[in-house]
Amino acid sequence: MNNRVSLKEKIGYGFGDAASSMFWKIFTFYLAIFYTDVFGISAAAAGTMFLVTRIWDTANDPIMGIVCDRTNTKWGKFRPYLLWIAIPFGIIGVLLFTTPDISTTGKLIYAYITYTLMMMAYTAINVPYASLLGVMSANSNDRTSLASYRMIFAFGGSLLVVAIYQPLLDFFKTSMAETTSYQLTMVVIGVIAVVFFILTFSWTKERILVPKSQENNLKEDIRNLMKNAPWFILLGAGVMTLIFNSVRDGVAMYYFKYYIIDDTAVSISKMTFAFSTMYLLLGQAFNMIGVAMAKPVSAAIGKRKTFMYAMIASAILSSLFYMCTKEMVVFVYILQALVSFCAGIIFPLLWSMYADTADYSEWTTGRRATGLVFSASSMTQKLGWTLGGSITLWLLAFYGFQANVEQSPETINGLKIMLSVVPAFAALVSGIFIYFYKLSEKKMIEISADLNERRGKNDNSDS
Q1: Are 374 and 225 in contact, with CB atoms under 8 Å apart?
Q2: What class, spelled out in words, does domain 10-203+215-450 have in CATH?
Q3: What is the pLDDT of residues 321-355, one digit of tens each?
Q4: What is this structure's pTM?
Q5: What's the CA gap between 393 and 51, in Å, rounded?
Q6: Per residue in 441-454, pLDDT tens?
Q7: Cα(167)–Cα(272) distance, rounded to whole angstroms?
Q8: How many angstroms separate the first and last alpha carbons of the chain?
């Protein structure tokens, strides 16, 4: 068997997160303001809807991981779902941004149904995609490299969607209703995402197989996960990191629309962008730079220290947003670049470390349950995303936000707090969690060597 992970395969793996992140960023940047300012439901109702639907969605992640662990096809355990779910994923994305001509109550019901379906489709394709990292290579450095490609493409997908989303909306709005323009924008983005997922399916390979002697035992797999201390530490760090990102991303459009006053004012060549679009583009660009630096920095000082220092820096820098006045757009951009750089560094490390906890579990228990480990990890990511999204909308309601009107000084102050103090606190707690993570690079080399020896013995005994 060829165990080398080729450049084409790394690129193919990256396309999958480009697709997922295109939708993720649409959800975090644009969905809340779509619901309140276009679709026509209140911030409080949308926040509660996010929480209720995602409780069910969060439970879906480990279920999907269990299903993947028990899937056996000629393509492997995880890759087939990238092919099977891609088209439904794109279609439901269009339905999510469709505004039916019905009552407010009917719209709320429609939002509950379509958002639930969207999150189920996201789970059905993203859990197998995330789990694929754990079976493409057993080498910790390869995993960091794959995770770095994944994150570079993720932020590349985010950068792409931020760059084309508003221009597509504006283009379609010139000849049709605003609600229809949202539909057609999502058709374009959905087609791109489907193509990316199919490329990931086509260009990747599963190499690490479950030991032939291992029998299915869900109860034991769950018991082993509950004993996996490093995984629990990453759980806490991951949840707080997602709250940090979700609140920052979720409030950004409100901050620019109602505080900065988001006019089209930035010109690049012959193209003009709103202040908010430039803010988001800048964030995605520096996210990508951070991702590119994750491997060399972590190779020099270790994953744990890199993660911890990046989160502490993010907390300090985020808190400075509160001091920004509406005239300090340049300073806002500088802070956005620096915070985004720090945030970009940690995400490849987080997923690489999750893969390490899967190896740690196999090393300590003799059983491998990659799908369960990654699905449970994905579940915690969604929990952080859920809490962050709901907190954003609930805080908007708490500070007296009303859609499409001039906001009160109290509401404006609330927007500033939501872009600064709230994410700074979440970043700091994430850094504290990761302080207690003990799977060092030296320890993972020992674990990997021991597992390779065991797998070699198992292969010889089965031949």
Answers
A1: no
A2: mainly alpha
A3: 999 998 899 999 999 999 999 998 988 888 788 88
A4: 0.71
A5: 10
A6: 888 889 888 888 87
A7: 10
A8: 15
